[in-house]
C-alpha cells in the first residue's frame, strides 16, 4: 500500500468520508490491480454522490475487470445518464464508446 493510500485510509478512518475520497481510494486500488477493494470504494462513492459520473465510469471498468459485463453495463448506463444531466461531454463520449464495445460480439 502506498503512503498516499495509507494517508487516505487514515482520513477515512477519522470519519471524513466523501465521494471524492472514496473515488480516489477506488482508483488507487484499481491501479494496484485490486479490483475487489476498488469495487467497494466506488460503490460507496456512487452511493454518496449519485451524480458522480466519473465514479460510475470507473465502477464499470472495475466490474469489467471482475468479468461482470452486466454490472459494467448498468454502471456505465447510470454514469451516462449522470454525465448527460451534468453536461460532462467528455464522459458522455467515453461511456458511449464503452457501451458500444460491450455490444460488439467477441472475436
Overall residue-averaged pLDDT value: 94
Write down the overall geometry. globular
Q: Find the structural class using helix and strand composition.
A: mainly alpha
Q: Quickly count the helices.
A: 6
Q: Write down the secondary-structure element order.
A: HHHHHH
> Percent of residues in beta strands?
under 5%
The main pleated sheet reads as:
none
Segments where pLDDT lies below 50 for 5+ residues? none
Explain what you see.
The longest helix is centred in the last third of the chain and has 18 residues, at 69-86. Helix 3 packs antiparallel against helix 4 (53-65). The chain has six helices and no strands. With 107 residues, the protein is mostly helical.
Features of this protein?
mainly alpha; 79% helix; globular; 107 residues; 6 helices
Amino acid at each position: 500500500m502506498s503512503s498516499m493510500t495509507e494517508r487516505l485510509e487514515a482520513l477515512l478512518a477519522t470519519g471524513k468520508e466523501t465521494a471524492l475520497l472514496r473515488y480516489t481510494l477506488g482508483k488507487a486500488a484499481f491501479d494496484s490491480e485490486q479490483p475487489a477493494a476498488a469495487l467497494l470504494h466506488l460503490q460507496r462513492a456512487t452511493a454518496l454522490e449519485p451524480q458522480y459520473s466519473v465514479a460510475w465510469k470507473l465502477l464499470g471498468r472495475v466490474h469489467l475487470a471482475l468479468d461482470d459485463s452486466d454490472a459494467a453495463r448498468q454502471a456505465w448506463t447510470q454514469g451516462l445518464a449522470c454525465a448527460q444531466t451534468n453536461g460532462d461531454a467528455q464522459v458522455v463520449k467515453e461511456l458511449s464508446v464503452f457501451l458500444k464495445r460491450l455490444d460488439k460480439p467477441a472475436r
